[in-house]
From TrEMBL, chain B:
This is Alpha-ketoacid dehydrogenase subunit beta. InterPro entries: THDP-binding, Transketo_C/PFOR_II, Transketolase-like_Pyr-bd, Transketolase_C. Residues 12-187 form the Transketolase-like pyrimidine-binding domain. Keywords: Oxidoreductase, Thiamine pyrophosphate. Its cofactor is thiamine diphosphate. The keyword Oxidoreductase applies. Gene3D superfamilies: 3.40.50.920, 3.40.50.970. SUPFAM superfamilies: Thiamin diphosphate-binding fold (THDP-binding) (SSF52518), TK C-terminal domain-like (SSF52922). It holds the Pfam family Transket_pyr. The lineage of its organism: Archaea, Methanobacteriati, Methanobacteriota, Stenosarchaea group, Halobacteria.
């Protein structure tokens, strides 16, 4: 768990550095090797690690727009995830998804950029597990800002009324972009949202990874044993701006300081020391994590960029294995000028999904 | 262009121009208020409400929970109660969360009530890509909103237009979707092309809906477009006049509903050639609609037609992929050449 957290933290530090390259001195969101928005999760690591440690590859996780720590904890392929964030051909999604839209079906991980959007699909994965009589579970991660969203509340109800094996994990970092929690809800303990729907709600304070571990062990166990859903809210801290480039003019200085003071990683290190892990042991873990991150970033940067014409592929399911080449997408891009430099319909390669 | 002659020699970014119009309307009418995510302290992620909190306070510039169904729907309710809400949907892509309120309430209540109820509400929202934010944050969706009966749809391309159209939008007694392109707003972190920053008079003025603007006059070919692509089309037109001697007319639609068919058809009668450029998906969208209108209105004058739009795929993330689908200056220039 400690290694997962340290890996996630290091990963985000390195991503931040890479992201800011080409964006200095004047910040231009579309410049540099990683364009678009980048939402880092530094300060959220305890929830991803403490929950996912109880999960197997076959269990499903849906994460929100701040996904990296959860992805790492769930065992998403770090190299291909990094390549995706750099927009490379060998990325998890061939460069089509980017950092907010990572899909790794090998470990049943997905995330998305629309607030609370992952809740219903997690319920659906749990439904599939129940119908098929497996003991797989699904976990939906979301922010405390997302728990006012209808899709979340409807999901609680559906999961509860059908006793589905799903765990909702709310990461409460007090902020939804510039909106502090107290301005958008009168209920400080988000786990109370469970009360109206007849499922258990648990709150873990103080960003305590071991307490998250315990709460998640129980919730995941309950789901696996067929006893229905749980809502866990975990206190985390947002150490950075909402996205890279956010000047945080709305945020009091002491709040930033507090987030850094209450960091879960030194706290867990302290807990481990008390349990007899020595400093060398911790250092070894850190070194290993840093090396793994560096390797992933180096690998990603060496990967080729996707070819422009690949933009037209993958809108529909690829052909079944061994099937003949699909016809050119006559309906979707028919009539596209064939002399333009952009995309020639005839060039559409027939290899949708063929690389796997 | 003619309208801009009376501007006061004071250049504003598009976001400043929008805010100026909103602030003026709020001063004039107590019933006007703004609500949305991060519209107060943050001033709108794209600067569309920047500075309003300081002048009008939290009662009239309201941050709301992330719950689009509820606050967009509340906008409809407040409008029906006679207020004039300006509701911001941060990115148009998030419409999916609250589409029922938008298209079954906001757009239809006037009609369903036999005209006994009206919805004087502005839904303003950021559109467009070109900065690699992928499929859930880069759409324009002009066609989706213009497709809904009962909805007025506005898409400014310059600060001058943005202000005049905003005044008109707030005063309009019908629901208006005001779609601003992120890359035109004049944000430090998302550089704009030259063009959207224009002279803007200090006094209020209203640009009526349904009046397209000829942003560049030309004899040889008509380009019809809107939003960011007005500027790309103007750049292509300048390039072609230099390199190919083609004299391109650029028509900026400015409003999709109501649509100024006359200006478009008149232009094609003059040039005989039509290129429609849209940052929205190709099928069932603005390009098809404009071609249909021209076919209805000036079929015998029409010698060539080209459409440039996003092929029917979601917006990809990686730079080469997004550039491949988002019409660039060269794509527009090629389409113009192809009409000859
Ligand atoms: C439906 C929807 N509305 C608004 C947004 C814009 N948005 C992105 S992140 C965010 C704040 C989310 O806050 P929270 O859920 O607390 O997560 P955090 O960012 O703090 O991790 C908002 C409003 C969005 N992506 N989707």
């Amino acid at each position: 768990m400690y290694e997962g957290m340290v890996t996630a933290r290091r990963y985000e530090e390195r991503l931040q550095e890479e992201y800011l390259e080409g964006k200095q001195p004047a910040f231009d969101i579309s410049a540099g090797p990683i364009p678009g928005e980048l939402h880092l999760a530094a300060g959220h690591e305890a929830s991803g690690a403490g929950v996912c440690i109880h999960l197997r590859d076959g269990d499903t996780v849906t994460a929100p727009h701040r996904p990296h720590h959860v992805a790492i904890a769930k065992g998403v392929d770090l190299k291909r995830m990094t390549a995706e964030i750099f927009g490379r051909e060998t990325g998890l999604c061939k460069g089509k998804g980017g950092h907010m839209h990572l899909f790794d079906p090998d470990v049943n991980f997905a995330c998305s950029g629309i607030i609370a959007q992952g809740c219903p699909p997690a319920v659906g994965a749990a439904m599939a597990a129940k119908k098929r009589n497996t003991d797989e579970v699904a976990v939906a991660f979301l922010g405390e800002g997302a728990i006012d969203q209808g899709g979340f509340l409807e999901s609680l109800n559906l999961a509860s009324v059908h006793d589905l094996p799903v765990v909702f994990v709310v990461e409460d970092n007090d902020w939804a972009i510039s909106m502090p929690k107290e301005r958008v809800t009168d209920v400080t303990d988000g786990s109370q949202r469970a009360n109206g729907f007849g499922l258990p709600g648990v709150r873990v304070d103080f960003d305590d990874a071991l307490a998250v571990y315990d709460a998640a062990e129980e919730a995941v166990g309950r789901a696996r044993d067929g006893n229905g859903p749980t809502l866990i809210e975990v206190q985390v801290h947002r150490r950075m701006g909402h996205f890279m480039g956010d000047a945080e003019g709305y945020r009091p200085e002491n709040d930033v300081e507090r987030a850094s003071r209450l960091d879960s990683i030194p706290r867990l290190a302290e807990d481990l020391r008390k349990r007899g892990v020595d400093d060398d042991g911790l250092e070894e873990i850190r070194t290993r994590a840093h090396e793994r991150v560096e390797e992933a970033i180096e690998w990603a940067k060496e990967q080729p960029e996707p070819k422009p014409e690949a933009a037209l592929e993958d809108a529909f399911a690829g052909p079944p294995e061994g099937a003949a080449e699909p016809p050119a997408a006559a309906e979707t891009d028919g009539g596209e000028r064939s002399d333009g430099p952009r995309i020639t319909p005839g060039e559409r390669s027939g290899s949708d999904g063929g690389e796997e | 262009m003619a309208q801009q002659a009376d501007a006061a020699g004071r250049e504003l970014t598009m976001s400043r121009a929008m805010v100026e119009a909103i602030a003026h309307e709020m001063r004039e009418d107590e019933e006007v208020f703004v609500m949305g995510e991060d519209v107060a302290d943050y001033g709108g992620i794209f600067g569309s409400t920047d500075g309003l909190l300081a002048e009008f306070g939290r009662d009239r510039v309201m941050d709301v929970p992330i719950s689009e169904t509820s606050f967009v729907g509340a906008g409809v309710g407040a409008a029906q109660a006679g207020m004039r809400p300006i509701v911001e949907l941060m990115f148009v892509d998030f419409f999916g969360v609250c589409m029922d309120q938008i298209y079954n309430n906001m757009a239809k209540n006037t009609y369903m009530s036999g005209g006994s109820v009206n919805v004087p509400m502005v839904l303003m929202t950021a559109v467009g890509g070109s900065y690699n934010d992928a499929a859930q944050h880069s759409q324009t969706l002009y066609g989706t909103f213009a497709h809904l009966p009962g909805m007025k749809v506005v898409v400014p391309s310059t600060a001058y237009d943005a202000k005049g159209l905003m005044h008109n939008a707030v005063r309009d007694d019908d629901p208006v979707v005001y779609m601003f392109h992120k890359r035109l707003m004049g944000l430090g972190w998302m550089p704009s092309p030259a063009g959207p920053k224009t002279d803007v008079p200090e006094e209020p003025y209203s640009i009526p809906f349904g009046e397209a603007d000829v942003k560049r006059e030309g004899e040889d070919v008509t380009v019809v477009t809107l939003g960011l692509h007005v500027h790309r089309a103007l750049e292509a037109a300048d390039e072609l006049s230099r390199t190919d001697g083609i004299d391109t007319e650029v028509v900026d639609l400015r409003t999709l509903k109501p649509l100024d068919t006359e200006t478009v058809v008149d232009s094609v009668r003059k040039t005989g050639r039509l290129v429609v450029v849209d940052e929205d998906y190709r099928s069932y969208g603005v390009t098809g609609e404009i071609v249909a209108r021209v076919a209805e209105g000036a079929l015998s004058d029409l010698e060539a037609v080209e459409r440039v739009a996003i092929p029917d795929v979601p917006i990809p993330y990686a730079r080469p992929l997004e550039e491949a689908v988002n019409p660039g200056v060269e794509d527009i220039a090629d389409a113009i050449r192809a009409t000859r």
